[in-house]
């Protein structure tokens, strides 16, 4: 019953990359990727971001590449 | 031949000539190994997300090319030796490399560059990017509490 209720009120999340094919996942675009990391720099999990498995996998890889070449932080602490 | 893309960060404290010479050296290295360079893009000096070799900025260069695996190995070996390069990343774009199609793409890009207005002076662009990065940092600070709350939610669900 609880799950039913939750489904009724909860907003269905749709994968942004499936909905709009014009957005590409590219490790060279930190601005797009930043949306999928927390303020601390962690990758936002799929259950929160609402991405489909395929795109979440691509995102994760892109974020990790961007981190390696210092386009995204591994971790941001305070006024770093 | 495979299709690769390499980004490397040149030390920011080098003079313009030294930076150009450094890039030239690696381009020559690739060409010597029979690589076909499709695109060379200088992003210019950008802020790094974290310090690398005690530097907060870096000169980013992106090169797209078709080459053999040995050529990439040789390039990366030289990146490791050269202290002017503070970070590099090579990504394979495709398993095959169509030289003719890429030559055409390169010619088109160059024609567009020649026909259109020359790219705006680089310092302006670099400044814009820096500003954006600063804005992001500000956001980080403001939303700190928000981030913490979200993480607590995560824990509850787990």
Automatic annotation (TrEMBL), chain A:
Protein's UniProt keywords contain Ribonucleoprotein: yes
Gene Ontology terms: cellular component: cytosolic small ribosomal subunit
Keyword Methyltransferase carried by entry: no
Keyword set, alphabetical order: Ribonucleoprotein, Ribosomal protein, RNA-binding, rRNA-binding
Domain of life of the native organism: Bacteria
One MF annotation (Gene Ontology) recorded for this entry: structural constituent of ribosome
Pfam families: Ribosomal_S18
InterPro entries: Ribosomal_bS18, Ribosomal_bS18_CS, Ribosomal_bS18_sf
One record GO biological process: translation
Function noted in UniProt: Binds as a heterodimer with protein bS6 to the central domain of the 16S rRNA, where it helps stabilize the platform of the 30S subunit.
Protein family (similarity comment): Belongs to the bacterial ribosomal protein bS18 family.
HAMAP family to which the protein is assigned, alphabetical: Ribosomal_bS18 (MF_00270)
PANTHER family, A to Z: 30S RIBOSOMAL PROTEIN S18, SMALL RIBOSOMAL SUBUNIT PROTEIN BS18M
Subunit structure as annotated in this protein's UniProt entry: Part of the 30S ribosomal subunit. Forms a tight heterodimer with protein bS6.
NCBIfam families, A to Z: S18 (TIGR00165)
Protein name (record): Small ribosomal subunit protein bS18
Organism in which the protein naturally occurs: Desulfoferula mesophila
High-level lineage: Bacteria, Pseudomonadati, Thermodesulfobacteriota, Desulfarculia, Desulfarculales
Gene (name only): rpsR
């Amino acid at each position: 019953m609880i799950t039913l209720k939750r489904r009724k009120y909860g907003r269905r999340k749709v994968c942004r990359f499936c909905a709009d094919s014009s957005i590409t996942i590219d490790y060279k675009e930190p601005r797009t990727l930043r949306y999928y990391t927390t303020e601390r720099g962690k990758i936002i999990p799929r259950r929160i971001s609402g991405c489909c498995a395929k795109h979440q996998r691509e995102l994760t890889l892109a974020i990790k590449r961007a981190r390696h070449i210092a386009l995204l932080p591994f971790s941001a602490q305070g006024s770093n | 031949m495979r299709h690769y893309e390499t980004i490397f960060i040149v030390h920011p404290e080098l003079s313009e000539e030294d930076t150009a010479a450094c890039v030239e050296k690696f381009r020559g290295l690739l060409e010597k190994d029979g690589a076909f360079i499709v695109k060379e893009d200088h992003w210019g000096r950008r802020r790094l997300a974290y310090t690398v070799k005690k530097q907060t900025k870096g000169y980013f260069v992106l090169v797209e090319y078709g080459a053999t695996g040995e050529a990439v190995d040789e390039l990366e070996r030289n990146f490791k030796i050269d202290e002017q390069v503070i970070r590099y990343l090579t990504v394979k774009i495709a398993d095959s490399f169509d030289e003719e199609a890429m030559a055409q793409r390169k010619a088109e890009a160059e024609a567009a560059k020649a026909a259109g207005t020359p790219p705006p002076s680089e310092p302006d662009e670099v400044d814009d990017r820096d500003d954006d990065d600063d804005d992001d940092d500000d956001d980080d600070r403001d939303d700190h509490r928000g981030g913490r709350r979200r993480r607590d939610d995560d824990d509850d669900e787990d």
